[in-house]
Amino acid sequence: MRLVCISDTHSLHDQLPDLPAGDVLVHAGDCTGTGKLRRGFEFVEWFAAQPHEHKILIAGNHDFCFEDHPEWMQEHCENQGVIYLEDSSVVIDGVKFHGSPWTPVFRDMAFNAKPKLMQEKMKLVPDDTQVLITHGPPRRLFDYVPADDLHVGCLSIAARLPFLKQLRAHIFGHIHEGYGKQEKDGVISANVSTCTSRYEPTNPAVVIDLIDK
């Protein structure tokens, strides 16, 4: 199974080049810039029009439309054939995906969670998850912000990962400066932020091949 992964497109999706071919197109949140309902609808329609057989979307901290109008956005995703995950899972060709939009509190953004809530949301990740999609990174992995000289990833996400014994890939975004990919102990981790720190949508989509074990 080939995953094609993007994130943090911030309503600039029309500027992207053709995406690589693959089986599942994943967007790890912040599909909009302002979070307005119209922008959310526009993105979902663009996402649905991509040629990949399956499309999985989670929300991010800019995506107020999913937090404020969940019924409308979820219905639009369903009508367009887009799989929207919000603390929920889906199995595609035997591979279990779980998606969660929550990130630690930063300003007054969508899907912000204080530490207790963040821990509760991570407890909802099934133990048999094989592909985890979160909007934000775990602490100290593709989460460094040079301007502030800080690692800003989530401790609760980092604490949950060792218990996911079947995990094969963790896909996230949020921290534009952290774009990158690594494989360690059989798990591929990737910050797939499409926009740079200057909000230029120039980072290429990240391709992840899940090899049958």
Structure description:
Helices cover 20% and strands 26% of the residues. The chain is α/β, with parallel strands linked by helices and 213 residues long. It has one domain: Metallo-dependent phosphatases (Purple Acid Phosphatase, chain A, domain 2, 4-Layer Sandwich), CATH 3.60.21.10. It has a six-stranded mixed β-sheet with strand order 5-6-9-12-14-13, with no helix packed on it. Strands 4-3-2-1-15 form a five-stranded mixed β-sheet, covered by helices on one side. A two-stranded parallel sheet has the order 7-8. A hairpin with a 2-residue loop joins strand 5 and strand 6. Helix 1 (37-48) packs parallel to helix 3 (70-80). The longest helix is centred in the N-terminal third of the chain and has 12 residues, at 37-48.
The tally of strands reads 15
Estimated share of beta-strand residues: 25-35%
The major beta sheet can be summarized as:
6 strands, mixed
Q: Report how far the terminal alpha carbons are from each other.
A: 12 Å
Task: Give unreliable regions as ranges.
Answer: none
Find the CATH topology. Answer: Purple Acid Phosphatase, chain A, domain 2
- Judging from the principal axes of the Cα atoms, what is the shape? globular
Helical content (DSSP H or I, runs of 4+):
10-25%
Average of pLDDT = 97
Q: Return Rg in Å.
A: 15 Å
Which CATH architecture would you pick? 4-Layer Sandwich
Total separate domains: 1
Class inferred from helices and paired strands: alpha/beta
Name of the CATH class: Alpha Beta
The topology string of helices and strands comes to: EEHEHHEEEEEHEEEHEEEE
**What's the number of helices?**
5
- Major beta sheet, strand line-up: 5-6-9-12-14-13
User: In the CATH hierarchy, what is the superfamily?
Assistant: Metallo-dependent phosphatases
